[in-house]
Amino acid sequence: MYVDSVSKYIDSVFNVVVNFFGFEFDFNDGGIGGGVEYDIYIQNLQEGLYGETVFDYLNPLPRNGVAKRYISFMRIDNSYYEASYYTRGINALKVTLAHEFGHAVQLLSYGLWEEDIWFYEMTSTWLEEAVFDDVNDYYAYIPRFFRATSTPIYFHDGYDLVVLGIFLQERFTHEVIVKAWENIRNHSALASLELSLNSFNSSLKREFVEFSLWNYYTGRRARVGYYKEGANYPEVRFETQPVIMTSNEASVKNSAGAFSTQYYMFIWRNDTVVAVISNVNLNSGFARSEDEFIFQYHITTGTYSEGYTSLGNGLRVKLIVPDFDNWGNLNILNLQVAFVKDRNVFPNPFYADGIEKILIPVDSGADEVELKIFTVGLDLVYSEKLKPEFNFGNYFVSWNGRNNLGQLVKSGVYIYFVNSGGSEKTGKFVLIRK
């Protein structure tokens, strides 16, 4: 019976969250609902609603810190079979119990900071994965984060920030998150996380910069040493199209809010540099500020100047800001999967006669794709907006080897750039003219 499954899986959740992880949960609701136990109500919820944790905002418990505490009860759906659920059936039940029980623990044992709801949702969504690793319902949320890394984390809804919880667990074990919740009794979310990381001989600034690096190594760029499931994650969105260096220098200027990250790609001949730029202003973060701070990133092949970092290939870079301690800048040079002969391009080499076409993969679902073709010398030979085609089980755009004047291009190595619905991809292929 369904109720037996509820009993079985809430026991599993309790064992992991309380007995193994060490979150506190000394519950007694004074007999509300017929007993002192925690109450779970199985109902036919509105379509798409997994569950909810309900509490009386006007009747808090005696405080054990600054934050107000509450007794709650849980409502869950009676089937999860509607098509509106990303995850359905028993798997949906499992992650809902983990998520909502997380909220029950937060409200009872640690207290509520209304301005930090993102941290509550982040933690509860992380618990879904931590308790039931095989379900992966959180895959439905994370595209929102990877499309919006330039938004300060405290302005996200929190579900999409589940990757922050996963990052912290894989870096430090669950204990760093438990300690943060112990601090939340008296401190806001980011301040609590800073105190927790300090106890692990680290800091919020340092780990946010590292977190931003991990977020680059997902999807096609996933590699060992970063997210264990990173190959299944979306890829971050670049702030601009790749910056093609037609002279010996280039730069970008923008502004960033606290605890946000921006990604830029620069192409110089056969080299690519990805600049990962993070603002880690603690004071602004603790204040949940909307302020933005101006930065300039400069890349050059010129002679050495003070403050520039050499990338070892003749390129030097510098992040130009007045308060460098409040920034993080990592530079990724020639990531292998981003700039090698692309095995997904077909055929490669491409024998061009002006009629046959090369197929270049794009993300499915995009109504229109921008395709640009460059020579190795970074001269633009072709640019067009195209409708994706479906071939060989995947979505592609095609090119017949002719430039925008209709002329067949010369033999050589070419660089392609595609932008499909905000997802960007760059690669190389060999064209041999027949």
UniProtKB/TrEMBL annotation:
NCBIfam families linked to this entry: MXAN_6640_HExxH
Annotated protein name in UniProt: Por secretion system C-terminal sorting domain-containing protein
Organism of this sequence: Kryptobacter tengchongensis
